[in-house]
Design brief:
The complex is a heterodimer of chains A (112) and B (114). With 112 residues, chain A is mainly β. Chain A is built from no helices and eleven strands. Chain A has strands at residues 4-7, 10-14, 19-25, 30-38, 45-51, 56-59, 62-67, 72-77, 86-94, 100-102, 106-111. In chain A, the strands form two sheets. In chain A, strands 2, 4, 5, 9, 10 and 11 form a six-stranded mixed sheet that branches. A five-stranded antiparallel sheet of chain A has the order 1-3-8-7-6, with no helix packed on it. Chain A starts with a strand and ends with a strand. The model of chain A has no long low-confidence stretch (mean pLDDT 93). Chain B has strands at 5-7, 10-13, 19-24, 31-37, 44-50, 53-56, 65-68, 75-79, 88-95, 104-105, 109-113. Chain B is globular. The relative contact order of chain B is 0.33. The chains are: A mainly beta (112), B mainly beta (114).
Chain lengths: 112, 114
C-alpha cells in the first residue's frame, strides 16, 4: 500500500550547522509533498511544500528537493537555530485522494 | 483569523465508555480531516469530509469509530466501547476544499483510556 519512509529518526546538530532529512515514497501517483513541524503538545504546522512539477523550492533557511524518478524528497535546514528543535514529518498526498500519508518523523535537536 | 480548534484538549475515560471529540475547522473550509497519532509516530488518516458527507472513511479502524459533520462545519468523532489501544492524540485538519490543498491542523485531543 501507500507508504512514506523517513530517515533519520533522530538528528542532533550544532547550532549554525545544516540539517538534512530524507524521505522516500512508494506510489508514483503522488504529486504533492508537504513538510510539517510539530512541537511538543501542538498539532503539526506546515513549513514548506513542493509539487511534482518542481524539483526544488526554497524559503529563507528551508529548502526542499524532489526527485520523482527515484521517488525521493528531502528537507534542508541551514544555519540552524535553537527554535528549530522539534519533530519534522515528511508526507505525500496522492492525486486520487485527499488523505495525507505521513512519514514516521525525525526528532531534530539543536546543540548550543 | 482563528485556526482549527479542538475540544476537549485532554480526555481521560475508562475502558468501555463512549467519547465524543469535537473539531471546529477554519471558517469557510469545506474539507475536514481526522487523523490519529500514536506516541512517537506520524499521524494516520481516519476520515475525510467534503461538506457534510464523508468522502473517504477508509482509515476508520473498526465500527466503534464514527464521525459526523451535519452542517458542513463542526465535526464530531465518536468512539464507542473505548479500548486501551484507542489512547492517542486525535488530530483534526481543514482545507479550503480543492484536492491537494494544504491541510491546517488543530492542536489535537489527547485521549487516554484507562
Amino acid at each position: 500500500g501507500e507508504n512514506v519512509e523517513q530517515h533519520p529518526s533522530t538528528l542532533s546538530v550544532q547550532e549554525g550547522d545544516s540539517a538534512v532529512i530524507k524521505c522516500t515514497y512508494s506510489d508514483s501517483a503522488s504529486n504533492y509533498f508537504p513538510w510539517y513541524k510539530q512541537e511538543l503538545g501542538k498539532g503539526p504546522q506546515l513549513i514548506i511544500d513542493i509539487r511534482s512539477n518542481v524539483g526544488e523550492k526554497k524559503d529563507q533557511r528551508i529548502a526542499v528537493t524532489l526527485n520523482k524518478t527515484a521517488k525521493h524528497f528531502s528537507l534542508h535546514i541551514t544555519e540552524t537555530q535553537p527554535e528549530d528543535s522539534a519533530v519534522y514529518f515528511c508526507a505525500a498526498q496522492y492525486s486520487s485522494a485527499s488523505k495525507i500519508i505521513f512519514g514516521s518523523g525525525t526528532r531534530l535537536s539543536i546543540r548550543p | 483569523g482563528a485556526g482549527v480548534s479542538q475540544t476537549p484538549s485532554n480526555k481521560v475515560t475508562e475502558k468501555g465508555k463512549y467519547v465524543e471529540l469535537r473539531c471546529d475547522p477554519i471558517s469557510g473550509h469545506t474539507a475536514l480531516y481526522w487523523y490519529r497519532q500514536s506516541l512517537g509516530q506520524g499521524p494516520e488518516f481516519l476520515i475525510y469530509f467534503q461538506g457534510t458527507g464523508a468522502a473517504d472513511d477508509s482509515g476508520l479502524p473498526n465500527d466503534r469509530f464514527f464521525a459526523v459533520r451535519p452542517e458542513g462545519s463542526v465535526s464530531t468523532l465518536k468512539i464507542q466501547r473505548t479500548e486501551r489501544g484507542d489512547s492517542a492524540v486525535y488530530l483534526c485538519a481543514s482545507s479550503p476544499g480543492t484536492d491537494q490543498e494544504t491541510q491546517y491542523f488543530g492542536p489535537g485531543t489527547r485521549l487516554l483510556v484507562l
